[in-house]
Amino acid sequence: MTTNIHIDLLKHHPGCIPRLAKIWHELFGKQWEPDTSVETIIAWLHGCLNDQLPLTYVALHRGTPIGMCSLEINDGIRPDLMPWLCDLCVDLLHQKSGVGRLLVTAIQNKAKALGFNQLYLFVLDLAMIN
Questions:
Q1: Crossing angle of helices 38-46/17-24, nearest 10°?
Q2: What is the model's pLDDT at position 17?
Q3: Most CB atoms within 10 A, among 22, 39, 68, 113?
């Protein structure tokens, strides 16, 4: 089901940032970080236009951004552990289609290419919040 999906570094698609920020805000911001504005996420994503940490991959469906995943040195939870896979989000219309798996694989491959043998992940169970 992942046909017509292209995974690439966000640095090659900076025009996707506003849409990705809206996806992040819809999926995480409203429930997990309600005080974080779309503008704040846009500014953060501009800091991820790299091929070194921090970096972000974008999933494109026929050229339209539908998801993202980031690799960061520290996610603010455990500064003694690095790097962190974070901010994996896929637009609701494309969830459960393998897009998330493609993004995670891209992050894993990049982490390995950067010399890391492990990745760390924080998972928030939104059901616990509601």
A1: 130
A2: 98
A3: 68
